């Protein structure tokens, strides 16, 4: 145990009229919505990296956080785990997520990294058994260390590819040992800065082969969870191979993996790709590759992935509307890939950031559920496309240009434009917020 969160009570639901900062106003984990509890709908997870490994730096300044577990020893790693599981219990989050580099100190070799990871995995296992907190997903950090400056799977050096593949294997082993429900891959540096030194075709082939190896190992080890890719545009390289959901789906199709891999979609990354969060979620749903989400928000003026805690309920309602339309989460969930502002130094700030995010997610999901149950938005959408559900509409798609042209001529078809009614539908959505 630590005393980092000393004096902070367990967070409970007290309702919308509560004036207690350390209470939920909208997130009642036992509240049933559309036949499921909010706890089961939202499947909250806390991100180990931003909450416990990030020192508070930015491009113009270094560390601002002074955490007692910061250090490069296994003792510090165990203290970090103690603090993390205390926070999980205070918040009542059922899950957490981690990269290997978040939880173990960096060794001087792959073998030492593996020993450090295996030791902390055993420490996690005991804490998970004692608290009931589970692992939503694990992943490998293949971007922070200087060895990955030119990528991991896409690196021009075969030794870096080998080191990366071996690291992924150890992280998949750790995830399975801890009962993780998913394994995530995201290419923090799988892109390029200039074509002058880049063989794009070779790098794409390497990335595809690495993913095939991951899928093969999943089946070899008997892992029953989902393999997820997290699209990540522009950051830090200008040309990322995993730019958005549609780009990744094309990549999966190219390498025959569309039936094996799904998406972990982050709000901030959707914005950097020039999309809305709900667009990326809807695209994944339509393609049959929706898996899980990283919930955060960007500063829309910064042009950078600022990873702020979510607080925009209207945006979140539209996102969870798409999640519900996809059937909700199965192995996935809502991971807070979000960090404090570098001036938010106190333990209370870390707790209250999650409380606010969890409350905003709950309010958004309940609004989305009410909107879906009411059916007015879906009815309006169905009415707009009703012509395609007729025999004539279906026959049109089965026809060819000659036959269609003859029909247009014979029937003197001259369609009049019809309103899309966007403002009416926007007003409708606002009724549920």
UniProtKB/TrEMBL annotation:
Class of enzymatic activity (EC top level): isomerase
Any one Gene Ontology BP term: D-xylose metabolic process
InterPro entries for this protein: Xyl_isomerase-like_sf, Xylose_isom_bac, Xylose_isomerase
Reactions performed catalytically: alpha-D-xylose = alpha-D-xylulofuranose
Cofactor entry: Mg(2+)
Molecular function via GO: magnesium ion binding; xylose isomerase activity
Active-site annotation: 99, 102
PROSITE patterns: XYLOSE_ISOMERASE
UniProt name for this protein: Xylose isomerase
PANTHER family documented for this protein: PTHR48408, XYLOSE ISOMERASE
Family affiliation: Belongs to the xylose isomerase family.
Chief location of this protein within or outside the cell: cytoplasm
Subcellular location: Cytoplasm
Residues binding Mg(2+) 2, per UniProt: 266, 269, 305, 307
Gene Ontology CC: one annotated term: cytoplasm
Cofactor stoichiometry and binding remark: Binds 2 magnesium ions per subunit.
Gene3D superfamilies in UniProt: Divalent-metal-dependent TIM barrel enzymes
Keywords: Carbohydrate metabolism, Cytoplasm, Isomerase, Magnesium, Metal-binding, Xylose metabolism
Gene it is expressed from: xylA
EC number: 5.3.1.5
Assembly with partners or alone: Homotetramer.
NCBIfam families in alphabetical order: PRK05474.1, xylose_isom_A
Binding site for Mg(2+) 1: 230, 266, 294, 337
